[in-house]
């Protein structure tokens, strides 16, 4: 709340600014949570997606692309937590 009686005229400005920043921060946090949920849903949808890749295409793929496993059924060869999709070479 903004104080009704302030000795310094800047106190009201600072208090108003603090309240505005609190509201903006809360809205940002809500938007960030919604975005994280949407990304989680997209990743879950992508997990089940199987794309056919023939041998010729496989050799031309960049090294960062990992597969869910090979024909022998071995586990994917990626670091714990999976590949870093945000890394830019």
Task: Summarize, please.
By secondary structure, this protein is mainly alpha-helical.
Mean pLDDT, to the nearest integer, reads 74
Q: Could you give the order of the helices and strands? A: HH
Radius of gyration: 25 Å
Structural class: mainly alpha
Enumerate how many helices there are, as a single number. 2
Roughly what percent helix? 40-55%
Please tell me what the overall shape is. rod-shaped
Biggest sheet architecture: none
Give the strand tally: 0
Spans of at least 5 consecutive residues whose pLDDT stays below 50 are none
End-to-end separation: 49 Å
Query: Proportion of β residues?
Result: under 5%
Please provide a written account of the structure.
The protein has 89 residues and is mainly α. It is built from 2 helices and no strands.
Give the arrangement of secondary structure elements.
Blueprint: H1 9-47, H2 55-60
């Amino acid at each position: 709340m903004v104080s009704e009686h302030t000795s310094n005229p800047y106190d009201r400005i600072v208090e108003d600014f603090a309240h505005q920043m609190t509201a903006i921060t809360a809205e940002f946090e809500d938007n960030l949570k919604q975005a994280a949920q949407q990304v989680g849903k997209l990743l879950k949808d992508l997990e089940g997606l199987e794309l056919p890749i023939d041998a010729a295409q496989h050799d031309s793929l960049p090294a960062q692309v990992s597969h869910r496993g090979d024909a022998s059924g071995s586990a994917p060869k990626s670091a714990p937590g999976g590949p870093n999709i945000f890394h830019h070479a």
